[in-house]
């Protein structure tokens, strides 16, 4: 193949050691957190530090028709950064530049920085970068942009797309373009910045991101409700969101509660059917009213215990418990990770339908959810050594997405389609939208080299 | 030409009277509020009421290679809905369907509804649609989507794109597609919903919009500052926005103040160099702190008078004065309307640069601004009967955009490029982005029939 013959050209064009072909190192870049056993083996790995090095890499890929998989921190839960046989993997892990501009309240960062590092740098300037995926301590900002990542505070503060003011992107042919900038409002030309957010590496490689920052989040009060049934909890979610816009409204079911308690030993209620964690960061009387409303709604929907605190550390302990769900449930077995979302009134039907699928397929499905915006994470647990159970888990994986589509929802609220969900995307969006997607992909990446197998 | 020969096919395919060729009626659909004297004369006008009728129209256009100009309420300030000779004008004015879904907190509307009608319908359900262009009482929601319209509250609450959850769009070949939906978060596939917002009718015809609604806006306190110089006022804007996120922060200069006072006789300070109107809708102590901060900043930046009120009617009177600026300044002569935006620290340089251009070209330029997000509206006044002055006004029009580009800003923050600003778009975004734009346009509208002459 052309790659091995021409790889020396790329090695020579980049700084010494930037191109890696060591099989042991490459093995660590095959899979992402989706742990797809079908992951391919890349031909080489490039770890650039500059936009110019990314351009050199993409020009070489274009010249030699070598596919490229862009990888951030490798935390994709949908196989978005799973390697493809013979591809070049471009890891952004060494692109770690950052500058904060207090005057424009923006952060301009390279994609390899972790979300938590951006948050910390903003905080040093008395500013706040809101999007907070549960994996914020280990996921990269480039991956957040690629998937339009969400998180816990997004029910009030929006998702990654709401904070991306500008991008630098290297296109399939190696050209680098700037989209948007530090200006807050911009209606000049097509919204290419917004098109690239969530495009999962199939349209270009993001090499710099300009993020809008906010003043610090006001301190939040937390309301926790313990429910005797998942339906009572999901009905309470609707009753809250119809009346206020909480700063957080998270759901955990019994399986996830017990898995987290096994991991963290923090005294979570093991016999609860569901837990809701609400937060209000409104100030003064408005905040008190939101807290009182959540308490009252939880109680009137049958919560057996309702607990409110204005201690940030106590509130954070519950949020941390929620964020620990995926690593905790991973202790129970291998996971197929769902990210289905529905319009809020369909949330109870989604959660009940997932339980029915769990029963039918005889697989454990833990459910956690960013309940306030209808985005749920059913986590399907299976033993890969048990072929029959694995098959039932895979059936359940598709049935959960089918259910979300039937409820006018989405197969992915914040993780992206990746490689694992693309089979369901046409069912959600339809053939015409798939054709539009392919046409735009072909317009920007005519040889189809960028992240092949993702979305399309 | 093919149009006149085949027009009877379209007439026959649509309900009686839906296709209009009466010259007197067509004359009213040549121009929009940009009043471009170079507007063309359309061959016919179609006023559909349903998506199916829009599809019929676009299929006919595709079959006969007839260009189509989509028009909402005709309030474009950049010539986005100016007619083209021989084109079909599709007016959405009769597409006025609306439904509010309180459970999902969404409005699903046809594009011809006015922004104010959407706001009013939401309010009837105790909900709020935030985006508030100054023209909100006369502009259509379809036009708002086409331009990614902003407004006064956008400094805190974001622009139209932040509220569009879903679209129905008829493509150039007549296919109707649904993008997004009522789910709040959606990372499934390319962000086509976001691509279509702000695409100014060049990628398709929006036939339905699903908008996110919020709980009602809390009542706001208003702080007004009267400044002896525009530089003092713009410095105060920066000092406010570095510390808080106000719910409104508007700027008016002396020309616009006097023009509005001539129109409204409300006692505005005729001898002020500039006026700032700030609002806080934070509740309780947080709101009091924001009001106190704006008062203190205005005073410390040399305001000769600072006035604060928690009376919503008084606050609205100042906002209404600001919104009246364009119609008021129109009384002084014909206008070339700018919409330039810059990163906030460059706001003083932009406002001072516009004054210098006004001096050099010897034309009056009134300046109003959504100052809190760096988006300004220099209004260039000229007498079209004075050829020399007209030429100088046109030079000033370009120089203001050149200045914004030099300050790393944008030629349009919320009005769109339309036909009047497209000459400056390449200078802002560069040749590569123009090529990407053309490639995406060609992918979705290969015959280039949709809103020709806009953006590209």
Strand content of chain A: 15-25%
What structural class do the secondary elements of chain A suggest?
A: alpha+beta
Spatial order of strands in the largest sheet of chain A: 13-10-12-11-15-16-14
CATH architecture of the largest domain in chain A: 3-Layer(aba) Sandwich
Mean pLDDT of chain A: 96
3D shape of chain A: globular
Number of strands of chain A: 16
- How is the biggest beta sheet of chain A arranged? 7 strands, antiparallel
Keywords (chains A, B): FAD, Flavoprotein, Oxidoreductase
Domain FAD-binding PCMH-type (chains A, B): 38-216
InterPro entries (chains A, B): FAD-bd_oxidored_4_C, FAD-bd_PCMH, FAD-bd_PCMH-like_sf, FAD-bd_PCMH_sub2, FAD-linked_Oxase-like_C, FAD-linked_OxidoTrans_Type4, Oxid_FAD_bind_N, Vanillyl_alc_oxidase_C-sub2
Cofactor (chains A, B): FAD
